[in-house]
Amino acid sequence: MAAGAATAGAWVLVLGLWGAAVMVGSQNITARIGEPLLLNCRGAPKKPPQQLEWKLNTGRTEAWKVLSPQGAAWDSVARVLPNGSLLLPAAGIQDEGTFRCRAMNRHGKETKSNYRVRVYQMPSKPEIVDAASELTAGVPSKVGTCVSKGGYPAGTLSWHLDGKPLTPDGKGVAVKEQTRRHPETGLFTLQSELTVTPAPAQEGAAHPTFSCSFSPGLPRRKALHSAPIHPSVWKPGPLENVQLVVEPEGGIVAAGGTVTLTCEAPAQPPPEIHWMKDGMLLPLDPRPVLLLREVGLQDQGTYSCVATHPSLGSQESPGVTISISGSVGGSGLGTLALVLGILAALGIAALLIGVIVWQRKRRKGKERKAPESQEEEEERAELNQSEEPETAESGPGGP
């Protein structure tokens, strides 16, 4: 009795296991955007009648969407085929999500299928735009911008130098990235700008090879590579031959006119140009051309420019004198005339003073001479009087 009960229990367990649902492990599916996607419902009878249903949870649904062979196609997005498979005529970004099928065969065995669907779109071949033809040794130089258009998911861009990956370090290698997504298609455009500080060119290594590649980030999808570029590396010499060109030539301009000063400094990259007047730095932003409008006396002076290069140092140009015609030379003549006028006035004043002093002395001399003459006349009169009697005595009454 006990043995019979045990045997019956064993059969019940076997039948229960036989009729239990069989769960197929979740499977990752990758579909290309715009192409049909077919998902098989495992365990379903190949021909109707079938007991099955599909449940979808994607970007097109707010919750689980249920489809069955007896139901109509879902807005041409997906439909169940006669063999129980689910067909998506053209997979899109919104179809990414989870798909599940539960089917019952004619023996009552239930099977569940689970799919995780992702879609992709390979972009066009990456291209390097604004590529540099020449780099400067020791100076941060832009190599170019790598562009990848029309991919999904976004993926990544990477740079290579002579076939080896370039890793941004913020010093000799810098990368500036940008990602944009099309508002209608949902596809991505990637940009990656590379800046490097090349070492001085060595023998046989004056033309490094740069390239970029796009990695989709999906399994079993190959990377796309751009065409390489071969810029040369220029090793700059010392900063020299900094010259200042003035227009009009000679630096002489009429009052109210315009003077153009151009600083010429042959170097790459172009150096910063600062301006000086009479040995003093002018408070101006760096610029290669200095324009003086409506020139006045305050603009006269000696101008020079100072070229500053990040790796070559600084050098000052020879000075150029700016003067106003009829004012700078005339100013000197005017000053001389003023000095001569002052000297002439001082001379005239001295002459007048001398005349006045001479006249005063002469007047005093006359005043002193007049009394002396009167005394002489009186003495002469006395002498005459004393001589007259003697003359009378010796006249007719004499012996």
Task: Kindly describe this structure.
The structure is a single chain. Strands 1, 2, 4, 5, 8 and 9 form a 6-stranded mixed sheet that branches. This protein is of the alpha+beta class and 399 residues long. The radius of gyration is 57 Å and the shape is rod-shaped. The longest helix has 66 residues. The chain has 2 helices and 28 strands.
Structure, briefly:
The protein has 399 residues and is α+β, with helices and mostly antiparallel strands. It is built from two helices and 28 strands. The strands form seven sheets. Strands 1, 2, 4, 5, 8 and 9 form a six-stranded mixed sheet that branches. Strands 21, 23, 24, 26, 27 and 28 form a six-stranded mixed sheet that branches.
Can you summarize the main beta sheet?
6 strands, mixed
Helix content: 10-25%
Strand content: 35-45%
pLDDT averaged over residues: 81
Q: In one word, what is the shape? A: rod-shaped
Distance between the termini: 238 Å
Task: Give keywords.
alpha+beta, disordered N terminus, six-stranded mixed beta sheet, single chain, 399 residues
